[in-house]
Amino acid sequence: MRPHPFRVLDIAEEIPGCMTMRVAPDGAGGDAAFAPGQFYMVYVFGHGEVPISVSGDPVKSGELTFTVMAVGSVTQALCAVKPGAVIGLRGPFGSAWPVEAAKGRDVIVMAGGLGLAPLRPSIYRLLHDRNDYGDIALLYGTRQPDRIVFPQELADWRDEALIDVDVTVDTAGRDWPGKVGVVTELLKGRDVDPGRTSALICGPEIMMRFSAYALLDRGVAAENIHVSMERNMKCAVKMCGRCQYGPFFVCADGPVFAFDRVQRLFRTRDV
Amino acid sequence: MANTGKAFIVSRGELQSLFDAVIARGFMPVGPIVRDGAIVYDELRHVQDLPEGWTEDQDAGTYRLKRRDDKALFGFNNGPHSWKQYLFPPRSKLWQGEKTEDGGFTVEEAEDTEKPFAFIGVRACDLHAIQVQDKVFMSDRHPDPLYAGRRGKALVIVVNCGQAATTCFCTSMNTGPRAQGGFDLALTEVLDGDDHYFVAEPGSTAGFSLLAEVPHTEADKDNVAAALECTARAEQQMGRKIDVSGVKELLYRNYDNERWDALEKRCLACGNCTMACPTCFCSKVEDVTDLTGDHAERWREWDSCFTMDFSYIHGGSVRPTTRSRYRQWLVHKLATWQDQFATSGCVGCGRCITWCPVGIDLTEEVRLIREREKD
Lengths: 271, 375
Ligand SMILES: Cc1cc2nc3c(=O)[nH]c(=O)nc-3n(C[C@H](O)[C@H](O)[C@H](O)COP(=O)(O)OP(=O)(O)OC[C@H]3O[C@@H](n4cnc5c(N)ncnc54)[C@H](O)[C@@H]3O)c2cc1C
Ligand code: SF4
Ligand code: SF4
Hints:
The complex is a heterodimer. By secondary structure, chain A is an alpha/beta fold. Chain A contains 5 helices and 15 strands.
């Protein structure tokens, strides 16, 4: 239950108000092995502790990458740390994206905004084992062109052509050469073989709802659609009670859920 | 720890020697005392500190102490306190950390300096409540050190109920009024004219050896019958009942029941019910530093699902309305708890009914939800 010290190797602005940092265990006790989709409780000395998903490559051992949006007191303090500083980590916690179970299948990754961060480890994983999968598509939607995270990687992935990368923004100026519209638009006209498609979705709840239902409409089974939930949490070990989502604890039963398990809750307001 | 079927008699006059034996073993004895117009739990070293001759009137939204016409020591039902305040304290330090020269820090788990507790006067429903919280705080994977430490060392002395309040419904929840096991010693207080004694049933080796230090005699058939009559009387007096058949499915089907709208208007979202409830376990944490910033601590405090903070994530509360927060509480107690911990989250103690300032009664709410279920 105690945070283990990790030292910040480097930290850089991802987009305004959002930083990506790499950390490594500072001495014994810290574990840096995780499965894509899992998160850590990240502690800034004296400020507090917040759940943050790993956004880095699961194959790179001995270090962890986090991408953090400054939205409140702890995340602001976290975004302000300098290289060499020490933060505390507990984890990893939670369920993972079903990348193993998706082997032999097509994979559609749908991300909204910062939701690409918790999905990025799964994309690395899919690319490492590229031959084990059928078609892979990344459909990414964000507010404006300057809110696109990991632009270099998106460009690299597009160039490598190992996965089909499709990006859209909600609004853009005339100089934006790309698509404008919500992320579900990217599904339109796309070949989806529902029987062999697995989908991984992460973003704001409303984006996940529309995306999941769009995939259901295309015949993808609910148990092959996965979403990642976000709830207030303090302990990450099913004790503080805060992350309850119907019968589930998001910290342990989630954050990644097969859609058939949460579909009923998705349809209910204020659960 | 199970009921051994062995019963003994401890006279009223010898009860103090039981307390003395508990104290001699290094326990901190806690139990019921009268304070500020209610029967609460606190340190309890002397039999004369028990609420002798006191009882209370309880109903939805009311609690009033009153005199009994006898000298019963345990002739009352649950007050606002429960044993969770000892096993899961309202506020506790989890750890403290120090910055180190190289810019890092060390963290050290907080030490629990309390003596082991002896709980004196645990009712059957509250014993179940402790077992419900055991499932939360003593899971195999992540046991809570503070709770597990205290619980492992605690001595549990049950006092079976000889009466029930109008707010009690342990019989509906199958948790009482007679404790069936999970205690060290169970007492039933018998008042029969001038006869005043306790039928004592050890439930563990600790209970047996404790009793060995207290003057006692073997109970005869009549004594045992008298004890069973006490709990039978409580059973008959049970003031409320709730139909829990299929209640999980009922509530899962009724997230849109019109009753939630009525609760939106009535419930004050004060959280009293969650504080009084012996099974409610939600908490928040507070991370603090001293003025230098070199010393940090993490504290855990009781929290309530009725606050807006509870479910706050950037952008707002997940449950912004009172109806959604009451629904979360009730559905958790009676339905989702079963999926999470394979037990009901409600033991039928009635505290939430008594201590709700507007007298909201979950037994009534469940009845109305059932009645108004849309087909
Ligand atoms: C599984 C999971 C993974 C996540 N992954 C990421 C990630 O990869 N990157 C990322 O950036 N974010 C991620 N988040 C979100 C991140 O945890 C939150 O943004 C963060 O907890 C906010 O903390 P804060 O202290 O900065 O914000 P604040 O809003 O200051 O603090 C939130 C906490 O303070 C309290 N609080 C603060 N303000 C109020 C208020 N006005 N009213 C009531 N209560 C208030 C709440 O109780 C809440 O617990 C993830 C969340 C989860 C659950
Ligand atoms: S929900 Fe009410 S009656 Fe049930 S255990 Fe909690 S306080 Fe007692
Ligand atoms: S049910 Fe009663 S005690 Fe509970 S929050 Fe509402 S008003 Fe307060």
